[in-house]
Amino acid sequence: MSESIIRTRIGYLVTDLTRLYGRVFDRRAAHLGLTRVQWRALNRIRLDEGMTQSALADVLDMEPIAVGRVVDRLQKAGFVDRHADPDDRRCWCLHLTPQSLQVMDGIEAVAQAVREDTLIGVDADELATAVRVLNQIRDNLVRLDRDGREPVMGKASRRAATPRA
After folding, report:
1. Does the residue 156 lie in any domain?
2. How far apart are CA 95 and CA 79, in angstroms?
């Protein structure tokens, strides 16, 4: 496969990997009664106990209202407690309950099994190279996102976008 074709397909490949990985994960974790986004939320709260809902929305790259619904379901299931932020009454700080730790152990076991199974037949050196490349791509995307760069338009797109007198 030519380098040009590989460069063109990288975004599609990453999207396919994400979709398929998620589908396998969801199927294997269904017995635990948590969605992938709920598990991600619990895991992020575990990493930063006491974080606000708005901070959780930022790290999950979700709208605050959607995260509020996720947290509502987690609270109703007994996995998360909300506490008023002592510095800002408009904010809720999120804390895990002891019950969440039990379900998180089960989810982590599923995640570990999925990781192991998806890497069957992948050489350790090739995996290290792939991870290094993906990290570089992520770093580039973070920089582009932070810089707020506009997309590059080809000649045809520029002509169509240019108003005519």
Report:
1. no
2. 9
